[in-house]
Design a protein that fits this description.
CATH class: Mainly Alpha
Number of helices: 14
Order of helices and strands: HHHHHEEHHEEEEHHHHHEEHHEEE
Strand content: 15-25%
Strand order of the largest sheet: 4-3-11
CATH architecture: Orthogonal Bundle
Distance between the termini: 39 Å
Radius of gyration: 20 Å
CATH superfamily: Winged helix-like DNA-binding domain superfamily/Winged helix DNA-binding domain
Helix content: 40-55%
Length: 319
């Protein structure tokens, strides 16, 4: 299997195009893939609940922060509560629906600790209160419990006709090109655009013309994006060994580590937001079951729940 792809065959470009456009990843990112949204959610899970605290910690422009919080409230992922009457001030708290994003937030924490630019703004260590140990979030298969990486899955593509029709009406190019070229990052350096390009590469699209076709965007926009991702260490650009005039784009360790985020977010979008099956369907090769991600404690192997995680060691924590 090629090191940069979970598929070992040349992609059907039309099928891949329709699968990307109708994927729950794509449609979920239309709502939560804007710059700063993930940073706001991460803040909420680490105890931030007041406007000024988010603004001071992250440096988000105030109008942008207000817009992101309004969107999260409208989606039912956060709720408002008055904590001061004069002047009137609101606190924002995660709802039960918002808590369901915790697995992919843990994947964001893991990626940021390894590769991101916000290490100093995130908890240094997570503690699993259920077993009392420090832990690293570990992606596992909910069917068999085994640890899973990108090469442990077989991906099949089955475009979702309903989501594809919505994508066609909205216009792929307009949706993808709406993100600013300088907006690189999970919160700061990996945005919706980057995640869709990484997914296209995972699906076997390694050449510029293939990426233009499956993403449906202007070549000039894609060229700028690819250049920025190579510079940021998210893609590796190499001359094609069969035709040196062509460039092959491959995943790097940093972009491969986005895999956990991608599958957790896609699953959340399919189950909780869209209530539609995704067009990109993974099967765990080891157990042969459709893959549903589960984030587990690296020490005890149990699934991690939001209320079972402490950002500082509990009294009985072991070193």
């Amino acid at each position: 299997m090629p090191p940069s792809s979970a598929l070992s065959f040349a992609p059907d470009l039309d099928l891949t195009r329709d699968a990307l456009a109708s994927s729950t990843l794509n449609h979920g990112l239309m709502v939560l893939g804007e710059r700063w949204t993930m940073a706001v959610m991460m803040g909420a899970f680490t105890g931030v609940n007041r406007f000024d605290d988010w603004q001071n910690r992250l440096g988000i422009p105030r109008p942008t922060l207000a817009n992101r919080l309004k969107t999260l409230v409208a989606l039912g992922l956060m709720r408002q509560r008055v904590y001061q009457e004069r002047p009137r001030r609101m606190a924002y708290h995660l709802t039960a629906e918002g808590m369901k994003l915790y697995p992919h937030v843990l994947m964001v924490w893991l990626w940021e600790r390894r590769w991101g630019s916000r290490r100093s703004q995130l908890p240094d260590t997570l503690f699993h209160k259920a077993c009392g140990h420090r832990f690293v979030p570990t992606l596992t298969c909910s069917a068999c419990g085994d640890k899973v990486g990108i090469n442990d899955l077989q991906l099949t593509l089955k475009p979702n006709a309903r989501l594809l029709a919505q994508s066609t009406r909205a216009g792929r190019a307009a949706r993808l090109a709406s993100q600013g070229a300088a907006s690189m990052g999970l919160g700061l350096r990996v945005d919706r655009w980057s995640l869709m390009i990484v997914t296209a590469v995972v699906l076997g699209c390694h050449y510029f013309d293939q990426l233009v076709h499956v993403l449906g965007i202007a070549s000039s926009v894609l060229a700028r994006r690819l250049s920025g991702m190579v510079e940021a260490g998210l893609l590796l650009a190499q001359p094609d060994t069969h035709d040196a005039r062509r460039t092959v784009y491959r995943l790097t360790p940093a972009s491969r580590d986005l895999f956990g985020y991608l599958v957790c977010f896609s699953t959340w979008a399919a189950r909780e937001y869209l209530h539609q099956p995704s067009s990109i369907r993974p099967v765990h090769k080891t157990c042969g079951q459709p893959f549903t991600p589960q984030v587990a404690c690296s020490h005890c192997g149990e699934a991690v729940k939001p209320w079972d995680v402490a950002m500082t060691p509990p009294p009985s924590a072991h070193p």
